[in-house]
Amino acid sequence: xxxxxxxxxxxxxxxxxxxxxxxxxxxxxxxxxxxxxxxxxxxxxxxxxxxxxxxxxxxxxxxxxxxxxxx
Length: 71
Description:
Layout (H helix, E strand, L loop, with lengths): L3 H6 L7 H11 L10 H11 L6 H14 L3
């Protein structure tokens, strides 16, 4: 199973909310890159929220991630 970070990077370059989110995550050197924990990731995103790294986009991406990896 890929970490959430590696999953999100598959959206880099897309011209939509997922792509912009992925770019923000990629640029954030403090992002918990090895984590697959919803609570750890959502807490981090709530604290670091930016224009594109939002909790609403995270929730959508998490749903796709959780479905893909049966979490």
